[in-house]
Predict the 3D structure of the following.
Amino acid sequence: MDDRERQEEAELLLRCKRGDKMAFGVLVQKYMRRAYFTAVGLVGSHHDALDLSQEAFVRAYCAIGRFELSQKFFTWYYQILRNLCMNHLRDKSRHAIPFSLLEVEESSIAEARGEASPSGVVEREDLGEKLWEGLWKLETDEREIIVARDFLHLSYRELAELLNCPIGTVMSRLYYARKKLARELRDVLA
Amino acid sequence: MTLEEQDRLLLMKALDGELSHQEEEEFRLLLQESKEFQEEWKSLRKLKEVTSLMRFSNPPTEIWEKYWTNVYYRLERGVAWILISLGAIVLLTYGGFKAVESILADTTLALAVKIALLGIMTGFAILIVSVIREKWITGKIDKYKEVLR
């Protein structure tokens, strides 16, 4: 986020603090995709992710009076969303692996179609299923960091802000999470 | 198989394309010298290749079109619930007061029944005050009280 963007966001947040719902709408539209996909990575269901990410925006608006303008909005919102998702997971009675919400990148499908093997696309789709299952065998905080880095493409700095820890800790957590996932997928990766 | 903390960080940076020039050299040397490092690198690079092929399924476009509207409706409903709750509190307080008044004024009721009813009502009043006080105190010290409760 550059200085101009940061300035615009600060102005929107100031308007939100004065009760301007439309200014809040601009923020929601800016962050809704990242919010939804973060929730997908944590709870694994489209409907729950949609519901929880929207509910987190409602709670953020209700608590906007306590938001400090020196903070970044998404970092603050992320804590609300994360807590909602954690509570949701804790309250869920069953822990079955949810239906996969991963799909193969279009560029990768095109590449597979171009290859000699016609089964390439199917193989990659199957790989997606296996990866999803592997992700759901991890602890929530392990899945969270892999999703944020490898699927939401957040930088180490952004991850450190969101998870409220030093960059070294982010890398260390990422290492252990990836190592565990690689172990879960050893048959596929071999 | 355990790597030193510094080597693990180097491995992550290499996977994520975050190595500086100096670190690239360190990484190259480590890869040549350490079998453990080579094996970890091989396994994690394969994993990275797999994750980079995947993305989350995008929901239908209408979801994004209606997203803010749905948040807005929820905000409106929140205001409605606050108004309903406030109205209900006023009505219940008034009803309770009137009930106590009529119980005390009723000469046909036995004293024991009057004491029992008054005890229950006083108990409820103490419970309500206690819950409100607890929420008030939590609100002062907990940044995310609206989330955790």
Summary: Residues 32 and 85 of chain A are 15 Å apart (CA to CA). Chain A is about 75% helix and 0% strand. Chain A has a mean pLDDT of 87.
